[in-house]
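Reproducibility note. Readers wishing to regenerate the assembly model reported in the main text can use the exact inputs given here. Chain order matters: entities are listed in the order in which they were concatenated for prediction.
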Amino acid sequence: MVGGYAGKILRVNLSKGSFTVKDLDLSLMRSLIGCLGVASKIMLEEVDPSVEPLSAENKLILATGPLTGSTAPAANKSAVISRSPLTGIWGEAIFSANCGIELKRAGYDMIIVEGKSEKPVYLWISDGVVDIRDAGSIWGMDTFTSCEAIKGDLGERDAAVACIGPAGERLVRLAAIISDNGRAAGRCGLGAVMGSKKLKAIAIKGSQRINVADQDMLNRLRSEIIETVRERMKPFSDYGTARGVVAFEEMGNLPVKNWTKGRFPGAEKISGMRMAETILAGRKACFACPVACGRYVRISSGKYAPLEGYGPEYETIAALGSLCMNDNLEAIAKANDLCNRFGLDTISVGATISFAMECYERGIITRDDTDGIDLVWGNDEAIIRMIELIGLKKDFGAILGEGSMRATNIIGRGAERYAMHSKGLEIPMHNPYRFKEMGLQYATSERGACHLRGLSMLPARGVLIPDLGFDKKIDGFSIEGKAHLVKVMQDACRVIDALGICKFIVFFGGIPLRRVAELYTAVTGWETTLEDLMRAGERIWMLQRAFNVRMGVRRKDDTLPKRFLEEPMCEGAAKGQIVELEPMLNEYYSERGLDDEGKPKIEKLRELSLDFAIKFIE
Amino acid sequence: MIKVTLIILDESLRKIISEKEIKVELSEDKATIEGLISDVAMKYGGFILEVLSKPAKNSILLNGQDIEFLGYFNAKLSDGDRVAIIPLVSGG
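Running the prediction on these inputs yields the following structure tokens for the assembly.
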């Protein structure tokens, strides 16, 4: 019997209050590796362009990988998938939520939620039980209170819960899904999809063993890998993902003032080191992770006290910090906590507030528009107030909560020039002026601007990946070879995501990808090579591209904000740089097998054995 | 003489050179990365050479660009330049 997969797919219809269970097609797993790939096929086949993201017809999928919940290092990831209400295209967010692990233990690899409930409900899944339960008394609560209330309601302290907060309930397009272990499926507004289905939470507890084909091999690989990972990633353990803030500022990677500046004098004040010296109260590890880059913070005095909870990651620190010219670390921790409680994506929230601050500085909006909030750069109290209003979908917050792309349409007056997004998803916190590959990656990521769908700047930062051919440093300012780099790194990240392990420990921990293939072999019992995995990654990327093409995405959408293309960076390491996207994109289309319009070529789909996808893009 | 700023973000080096930034004066004939490193090693001890000899752990940036693309240790320095020693695994 093959290991790793639970072997079942659960489909729940909230309109009918019913569910079905089907076997997972294992022959499909040979080519797609994880349920991220299966979900891509299902979304392509079942969601047509007439399905509005916030309608009953849209689907919300929780998909695990074959390694999820196994003892492979940091095998803790699951993906939430839907048509995004923020972008209208492929919507996906991956998090290390315990509910994915419990789902496997309850005997399922994936849940597909369809339809819409009349009244607030939550979904309870345990061994042999699928129950749609009343959430009337929980609706309205913040995320962490909701998780506790649901555990209390079930009398199951050990259940894993992922839920939405007030933002998702109000269909805020920046709404996230938050898990009880403090991790967020943040991007693409998937919390609003749950809200539209009146689905407050998913709670899961299982007791079945996740089968591993060769536990001895897995144990051996794990102990070999963990030693190297611990040593290499000690800085992540000590200082979290925000260790890099000062170094990023120095190398021109840190985004500053809505991407108009290259230097930020306050970088040290918001760094992981400063956090460790001040508000850090502990470290948090996700399931089976030897690193523990998660932060736990406590503020006991000052205007943001008392506060105790999960601390901000690098992306959050940059988005709500340097991007908004805010160098107050305690304010960032407070903003992060508020976003978690409301259930909001910290990246898109920070980027959208930063966009509003630029509009405010330029006089495109005034205090009359912002309901009296003084949105000057660096005003930490204004940032906090805006987050509350976004979470409550109130006043000017109701406009910003639509995301920067829609907000420009409402604000008008030329505001679109300052909205920094690609395909509607706000640009995350690595600088395409500094690393041109990130520009190409942002323009071509399947969910819109995403840093994690590729991490293609790693070889330029000296984090080498020899078994993908990146065995020496790459010049981040050059565009040479970037199409190949981005394509390969995107494929690698797609399959790592599909496997269900953390890509940070793979790349920063220096785990060779051939070792990752061995982990998959140990867990499933299927002999698998790195080439097999990379092929699966390419297939998954291509299926999601096909989905986007079906939704109307074409070459014109594979682009970046004009600022990156036309306005040279004025200072810092990237001074004078712009992103030369067009030549990189031409080369990329050819690497990928896309035609001039940006559609997958028929022969490419055939070559990847994705013939079933052809009819959806013709 | 030229004056450059050396920024130290490597933790083990910070234990030796306690400041985040130091100003270093170099004569024109020593205005390279190599000249800078030997000057700093003279002042603070050979430990710095050990740190810099681990390219798997640290990068050296000149005005934000990796010296690997600027002629490595022969990279020329000018008055006002910033040289930074930064750890590779610096976060995400």
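We highlight two features of this model. Chain B has a mean pLDDT of 88. The first strand of chain B starts at residue 2 and ends at 8.
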